[in-house]
Each structure stands twice: as structure tokens, then as C-alpha cells.
Amino acid sequence: MDDKQLIKLIRSDPSEGLKEAISAYGGLIKAVVMRILKDPQEVEECVADTFISLWKNIFTLKKAGSLKAYLLCIARNNAIDRYRKLKKKDTIPVDVIDGFEPIVHDDVELLVIKNEFMDELQKLIMKMPEPNREIFIRKHFMFEPVKEIAERLNLNEVQVKDRLYRSRKQIRSSFEKKGINYEENIFTTARSFE
To answer: Structurally, how many domains does the chain consist of?
Structure first.
């Protein structure tokens, strides 16, 4: 059953359609969520929330869109939200950025480019000294505001902004040396689920 048929089934028979969706994508969704959340109960709840969201929004989905990409995006966002709530004062493990892979897209060439970009970005992030690494992850992967990051790390906002600026500048320079357009990739990667 393809995504169009699955969307149609969920709209006409939600119970049967959701069973089919869980059967088709449940394992993949769980794998993505497990990369961000480690607690099995939190993982199960997040997976369930993802399919509840599908059910609630089934009539607003575009028929031509990728259901798989939609579900992965919802799962990732749900997992990040849960992770934020669970880790209010803890430091973030670097493997949280793994929760953003693989990027899913119907265009195979774009998929390859984006995944190569994310692989390279991850390597550069891993080389950052602390607290720059944590600041960068919190800002660009967990979408935390500068003020919140500063409070969490006992820094002032100017220090956080300065570290972010220097980190982005280093990443941009590394990408430019390799002939990769940093701005184009960083922003289109963030929108690759749309």
C-alpha cells in the first residue's frame, strides 16, 4: 500500500488505517525517537503521540506529500520537545544530533547531498570545544533561545552569542574550503521535511 492509499484508508477507516500506518512506519519512527530519547517508556509514548498527531491532522495532509517524511518530522519534533522537558539542567549528549538523520526526501540527489552535509556538519561539531559544542547543539538542533542557554550554562547572553558566531564562522570556513555552500545547505536541510 502506498502513502496515498494509506492516507485515504486513514480518512475512511481511522482504526484500520492507523494499524496499517503503524505496521508500515512504526519501527522506523521508534528507531528515530530512540536516538533522541533513551527511556523506553518515553520512546513508546512519543511514538504513540506521533500516530495520534497523524490521526488528528489526516485531513490537512497533502495527498502528494510523503507520509513517511511527515511522520519522521512529527516524531523528531515530539522527541525533541520531550527531551527538553526531561533534561532541564542536564548537559546534552552529543548524540542528540544523530536524531536528525537520515534526512528523508523524495529527491534522491538532494537526499545524498543533505546527508553528506549533515555528516560533515556532525564531524565539525564533534571537534568543537565545550561549551561551544553544547551551545551550538542547543541553539541549532534543540532550538533553545540564547537567554535560556546562557542561564543553563551560567554565561551571559553576549558570551553565548559570541561563541555561536565564532562556531558558525569556523563551520562556514571549513565548508567553503570544501566548496560547500553553508547557508544554502543549513537552511534547506532544516526544511527538508516540508
So the answer is: 2
The larger pLDDT score, comparing residue 164 to residue 84, is at 164
Domain termination residue (choose one: 34, 61, 86): 86
Residues 178 and 139 in one domain: yes
> Which positions ≥6 away from 134 have C-beta within 8 Å?
91, 92, 153
Residue 118 lies in domain: 90-194
63, burial (CB in 10 Å: exposed 0-12, middle 13-18, buried 19+): exposed
- Give yes or no for residue 45 having a pLDDT over 90: yes
Q: What is the pTM of this model?
A: 0.47
Tell me the CA end-to-end span of the chain in Å, nearest whole number: 22
Q: Which helix (H) or strand (E) holds 125?
A: helix 108-127
Q: Residue 68 and residue 52: Cα distance in Å, rounded?
A: 15
Amino acid 68: pLDDT: 80
Which residue in 68, 1, 72 sits closest to 30, CA to CA? 72
Residue 60 φ/ψ, nearest 5 degrees: -100, -5
Distance CA 162, CA 16 (A): 53
Element (H, E) at 16: helix 14-34
The model's pLDDT over 102-146, given as tens digits with 9 standing for 90+, comes to 444 444 455 455 556 666 777 788 888 989 988 987 787 666 789
The residue from 50, 69, 86 where one domain ends is: 86
**102 and 42 within one domain:** no
